[in-house]
Amino acid sequence: MKIIVILYWRKSKKVKFFCKEVMMSKISDIIEEFILEQLDNDGFINLSRNELANFFNCAPSQINYVLSTRFTEPKGFVIESHRGGGGYIRLGRVNLEKSSYVKNLLSTTLNGDIDYHDACGILDSLVSLKVLSEQEAKVLKYAITPKALSLPVKIENKQRANIIKNVLINMLKE
Prior knowledge:
Elements: E1 3-11, E2 14-22, H1 27-42, E3 44-47, H2 49-56, H3 60-70, E4 77-82, E5 88-93, H4 98-107, H5 116-128, H6 134-143, H7 146-149, H8 153-173
Antiparallel strand pairs: 1-2, 3-5, 4-5
């Protein structure tokens, strides 16, 4: 069943319309898409957790969940939280240049160990930067699943980082 969702967001004297055809999506997917659309327009956005929760008719913890799982640093986002009476959450995209992002990944994040969720976030970022194709990322995601690696967790996370690191190094050689 398809549902057309039309919402409007009034913030800072701007009215933004959000129209989405939904196939009974999860509310977290709808919230994520709404925030991404706002980011595409401005590059950053100031959010009030309570206002967004009222807007989507959900609990504020749902907004926290979306922000903490879908807008992480490995995925190329930065979040600042300002508490208090006029508190807000400022969300923005990290200015990612392909080569500097990949070099940073190779020297920091992929030098240790990485869990599957964070690895998928990194692969999604590499797709958005066009370092990897969607198909290449999909294959890598299958190759680094806990089931595919079948190792103790500590070794598994280290091996996952090594696999992604070696793929990127070899792609940079080409």
